[in-house]
Design goal:
The structure is a homodimer. The first copy, chain A, has ten helices and no strands. The first copy, chain A, has helices at about 25-45, 50-60, 65-70, 75-80, 85-95, 100-115, 115-130, 135-155, 160-180, 190-210. The termini of chain A are far apart.
C-alpha cells in the first residue's frame, strides 16, 4: 500500500464501468483496493508475470471477487493505468467485422475515442511515461503484444502475421503521437473521416497486403 | 545564461561537426556560447520566432560568426537539442534521388542512423520531452513543419502535399517510437532491410500514392 506505481499519474480515480452510480461504499472500497493492488503488482512484476490470482492475494480478497469486477487481466490493467481506450477490445471488434474493413474499423475506433480531448491527453501521458521509463515501456509492450498483436496474428493466421501486426502498430502509434501529442498540421485538424480514409487502408495493407485505393 | 532550456537533458556537450579535433579553445568557447544562447532563445520563443540574428545578439557575437559555424537555423536547432539525426537533411537527400525511391531512402536514413543505440535512445528522450511539455512539442512541431513537411510538399507540388507529408510523418514517427522506444517485437529485432522494405513503400504511398508492391 502506498508504494509507488509506474503509471501513477492518473488524472482521477479509476472510472467505474457498467455499475449503478449509487453502489454501496463497501463495494466501492473493495473494487478500489483491487485496482490499487493491481497497479502495484503490474508495476513490480510487469504485465505477463502478474496474475488475477496474485492481485486477489495482494488485495486480500477472493479471486472470484476480482473476476466479478473485471472480465480479465487486460480489463484490470487498462483500469489500473486509467487507459482511455482498450486496444484489445478494439481489435476484437475490428476482427469480428468484414476482413477488408479491419484497418478502417481500427482507425475509426482510435480517432473517435481519442478526439475527446481528455482521452487524447491521457493516452499521450501514458506514452510519455512509457518513453521515459524502461519498465513502463516493457509493461506496455507486454500488454500490446499479448492482448493486441498476438490476437491479430492468430486471427489472420498467416505465417508472418506477428510481423505484420507489429508493423501495423507503428502506423497506429504514429497516428496517435502526431495527432494528439505533437499535433502536426494539417493532420491534427483533419476531420475524423479524412484520417480514417487515409490511415485505414494503410493499416489494412500492413495487416493483409490488400491493395490500396 | 544558466536559464533552463526545454531540451536541456542532452547527455553530453553538443557534438562538433566538420572541424579539426584540435580547434583552439577560443573558437570552442565561441561556438559553445552560440549553442547555449540558441538553446535559450529557442526555448523562450519557439522555433519559428527565433532568428540567427537574435541568437547572435544573445551570444554577443557577430551574426557572420554564427553563420560561420552553422549553415542555417535548422543546423543550429539540431545541435541545440543534440538531435541524433537531421530530418531536414534526410528529406533534402531523399528528394534529390529518384522520385519512386523517396520513401525507401527516408526510411533507410532513419533506420541506419537510429540503429546506433545511443542515437536511438537520444531520439526517444527528445520525444519523451516533447510529449511531456506543450512548449517542447510546439517547438518540435514548428521545426518539423517548416524544415521537413513544407519542403516535401513544395517538392511534390500537389495541392494536398502538406496533408500527404503530415500523414507520412505519422508512419515515420510511429516507426521510431515502436522500434526504439516501446521496442515492440518482432519489429524491434527485424533487420534494417526488412524494415526498409516494409515501411519504405508505405511512406512512398503516403507521399505520392504510388502502388504498393
Amino acid at each position: 500500500m502506498g508504494r509507488e506505481t509506474v503509471f501513477d499519474d492518473a488524472p482521477q480515480p479509476p472510472r467505474r464501468r457498467g455499475r449503478p452510480a449509487k453502489a454501496n461504499s463497501l463495494a466501492d472500497n473493495t473494487r478500489s483496493s483491487i485496482v490499487t493492488a493491481a497497479a502495484e503488482e503490474f508495476s513490480r512484476d510487469g504485465y505477463d508475470a502478474t496474475s488475477m490470482r496474485g492481485i486477489a492475494r495482494a488485495a486480500s480478497v477472493d479471486p472470484a471477487l476480482v473476476r466479478h469486477y473485471f472480465s480479465d487481466k487486460a480489463d484490470l490493467f487498462s483500469e489500473a493505468i486509467a487507459a482511455p481506450m482498450r486496444p484489445d477490445v478494439m481489435v476484437t471488434h475490428a476482427l469480428a467485422g468484414p476482413r477488408d474493413e479491419i484497418g478502417v474499423n481500427i482507425v475509426r475506433y482510435i480517432v473517435e475515442t481519442l478526439d475527446n480531448p481528455a482521452a487524447g491527453a491521457r493516452i499521450i501521458r501514458l506514452l510519455h511515461t512509457a518513453l521515459g521509463q524502461e519498465f513502463a515501456a516493457s509493461m506496455l509492450r507486454e500488454f500490446m503484444m499479448r492482448e493486441v498483436l498476438k490476437r491479430i496474428a492468430r486471427e489472420l493466421g498467416e505465417k508472418d502475421s506477428e510481423a505484420r501486426a507489429s508493423f501495423a502498430a507503428t502506423q497506429l502509434i504514429g497516428l496517435v503521437v502526431a495527432r494528439y501529442g505533437l499535433k502536426i498540421e494539417p493532420l491534427a485538424s483533419a476531420s475524423p473521416d479524412e484520417v480514417i480514409n487515409h490511415i485505414g487502408p494503410i493499416v489494412q495493407w500492413h495487416l493483409m497486403g490488400s491493395p490500396l485505393p
